[in-house]
Specification:
130 residues, alpha/beta, Rossmann fold, six-stranded mixed sheet, globular
Length: 130
Amino acid sequence: MRVVFDTNIYISALVIPDSQGEKALIKALRTGDTIIISQDIIEETVRVLAQKFERNKEAISRTILYLRSIGEFVQPVEKVHVFEDTPDNRIVECALAGKGDAIVTGDKKFLDLREYKEIKIITLREYLMR
């Protein structure tokens, strides 16, 4: 399965040991699922880590290297306007560029959509149970 994780899943995985987010990343890596990630997702993740969790420059640099190493890096070309929130649109763009099978999120706006251009939108729990 080719998956795009919402930024909040990365935040959870990187901030809370043994969190559901961390379990999802571990599952993807162990099962051979492909994690698709873009520069926009990485930038949003490190922005939140720096602002809300006060991560220093060295920790941020390690995080960037880690995120780039765990998945397939894509550079979306197509811009979409599915949601009002720009970072949410960047998640969809990443999934489109990487030919994703699913977006994994806890965001109600995404979950209400359920699917976009044949890309399933599933909860973290649904991903972990599959």
